[in-house]
């Protein structure tokens, strides 16, 4: 009889625990979405203090052309002008958080405005991307993985 009561109590408590965890995941997803937008702005403005914090030391950053960088190389590419961003427009952004708000997977589409082509015409890159962020207890949310793929020009 005691075992049955314990099982019934457990059955009543489990949904509440699952709901609490999903609330943590929902809050984490909103936080990560805001951080994604802030990181894009930091890439445009070359806010290296923020980017140092936003990217994990073991970052793997895979560009749409397949080239990979670690954190130091990627940040240096922005400093050197190899990675230039005049604007990054978020077209779609989806965040799924896991593990009670300790990990997040982000996917979306962006349009990057790059410096104009030599003939003066606009230079745009349409990308689909995936990001993995992990919440470090001391450093907060950090990007550990970026992967992007060029999309066809929307003109046709």
What does this structure look like?
This protein is of the alpha+beta class. It is built from 3 helices and 6 strands. It has a 6-stranded mixed beta sheet.
Strand order of the largest sheet: 2-1-6-5-4-3
* H/E topology pattern: HHEEHEEEE
Secondary structure tally: strands: 6
So, CATH architecture? Roll
Rg on CA atoms, Å: 20 Å
**N- and C-termini, Cα separation:** 70 Å
What fraction of the residues are assigned to beta strands by DSSP? 35-45%
Averaged pLDDT: 87
* Total of helices: 3
**Estimated helix fraction:** 25-40%
Going by helix content, strand content and strand pairing, the class is alpha+beta
Number of domains: 1
Question: In the CATH hierarchy, what is the class?
Answer: Alpha Beta
Q: Oligomeric status of the shown chains?
A: single chain
Main pleated-sheet profile: 6 strands, mixed
CATH fold group: Nuclear Transport Factor 2, Chain: A
Q: Globular, elongated, flat, extended or rod-shaped: what is the shape?
A: globular
Contiguous runs where pLDDT drops below 50 for at least 5 residues: 6-11, 16-20
Give the topology.
Elements: H1 2-45, H2 48-54, E1 55-62, E2 68-69, H3 71-79, E3 87-98, E4 103-114, E5 123-136, E6 140-150
Parallel strand pairs: 1-6
Antiparallel strand pairs: 1-2, 3-4, 4-5, 5-6
Helix pairs in contact: 1-2
């Amino acid at each position: 009889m005691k075992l049955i009561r314990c099982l019934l109590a457990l059955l009543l408590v489990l949904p509440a625990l699952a709901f609490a965890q999903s609330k943590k995941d929902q809050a984490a997803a909103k936080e990560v979405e805001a951080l994604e937008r802030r990181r894009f702005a930091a890439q445009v403005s070359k806010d290296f203090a923020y980017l140092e914090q936003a990217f994990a030391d073991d970052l793997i950053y895979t560009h749409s052309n397949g080239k990979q960088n670690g954190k130091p190389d990627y940040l240096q590419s922005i400093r050197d002008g190899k990675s230039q961003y005049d604007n990054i427009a978020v077209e779609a952004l989806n965040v799924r958080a896991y593990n009670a708000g300790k990990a997040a997977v982000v996917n979306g589409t962006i349009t990057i405005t790059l410096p104009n082509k030599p003939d003066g015409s606009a230079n745009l890159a349409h990308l689909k991307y995936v990001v993995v962020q992990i919440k470090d207890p001391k450093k907060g949310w950090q990007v550990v993985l970026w992967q992007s793929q060029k999309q066809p020009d929307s003109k046709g």
